[in-house]
């Protein structure tokens, strides 16, 4: 008991230090590999016994620039098989969105930069480039092209899968766009709890 009374602050400082290191590892580096419900993205489920994970994953990697691609096999109680495809975003669309933001920011103050960025968007999406268009018209064309490409992207993946693996028109295929709002709420609450815990632990020790 005497030893505890004399050294309890130092003894409690060790778990506090480990707690801080744990938070850094979790939140900063290397971080957690979160599921789609946390990050947001798209989930496609193809109900077919003819599909396996490796060919589907290989095809998607070759044909599309998907981030956080995950392909898994799901069995049903009745013996059927489904392939679940999850991904966060398409790298081409992410890059085009960044270029569009540059175009919008510079549309008035730097028209040439806005024009170049808009052309980058149109070229990346293989969209029609208007001839002799003003900067404003190019920015509008880039906005329209990106909006259409984003809306049709998941459908393109579905059509490519059906065609590549000869699934037929009657294949049962579902798509779900998953919001990242749950993940954002989770991290906000996790950080709040972690900071509060550190503060309370510090008060207890010192």
Word description of this protein:
The structure is a single chain. By secondary structure, this protein is of the alpha+beta class. The chain is built from seven helices and four strands; from the N terminus they run ααβαββαααβα. Strands 2-3-1-4 form a four-stranded antiparallel beta sheet. Strand 2 and strand 3 form a beta hairpin. The mean pLDDT is 82.
How would the global form be characterised? flat
Order of helices and strands: HHEHEEHHHEH
Q: Report mean pLDDT, rounded to a whole number.
A: 82
Tell me the total number of β-strands: 4
| Rg value | 25 Å
N-end to C-end Cα span: 19 Å
Biggest pleated sheet: 4 strands, antiparallel
Number of helices: 7
The largest sheet has its strands arranged as: 2-3-1-4
Compact overview of the structure:
By secondary structure, the chain is an alpha+beta fold.
Element layout with pairings:
Blueprint: H1 2-27, H2 36-39, E1 41-47, H3 53-63, E2 70-75, E3 81-87, H4 91-106, H5 111-124, H6 135-164, E4 172-178, H7 181-205
Antiparallel strand pairs: 1-3, 1-4, 2-3
Helix pairs in contact: 1-7, 4-5, 4-6, 5-6
Keyphrases for this structure?
single chain, 206 residues, alpha+beta, 7 helices, 4 strands, flat
């Amino acid at each position: 008991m005497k030893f505890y009374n004399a050294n309890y602050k130092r003894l409690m400082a060790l778990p506090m230090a480990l707690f801080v290191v744990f938070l850094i590892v979790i939140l900063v580096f290397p971080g957690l590999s979160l599921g789609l419900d946390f990050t947001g993205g798209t989930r496609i489920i193809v109900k077919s016994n003819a599909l396996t994970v490796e060919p589907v994953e290989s095809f998607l990697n070759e044909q599309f620039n998907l981030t956080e691609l995950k392909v898994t096999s799901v069995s049903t109680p009745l013996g059927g098989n489904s392939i679940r495809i999850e991904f966060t975003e398409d790298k081409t669309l992410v890059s085009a969105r960044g270029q569009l933001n540059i175009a919008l920011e510079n549309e008035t103050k730097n028209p040439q930069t806005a024009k170049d960025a808009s052309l980058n968007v149109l070229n990346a999406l293989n969209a029609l480039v208007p001839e002799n268009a003003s900067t404003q018209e190019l920015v509008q064309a880039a906005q329209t092209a990106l909006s259409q490409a984003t809306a049709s992207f998941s459908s393109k993946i579905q059509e490519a899968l059906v065609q590549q693996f000869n699934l037929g028109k009657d294949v049962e295929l579902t798509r779900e766009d998953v919001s990242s709002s749950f993940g954002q709420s989770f991290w906000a609450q996790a950080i709040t709890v972690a900071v509060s815990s550190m503060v309370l632990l510090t008060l207890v020790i010192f």
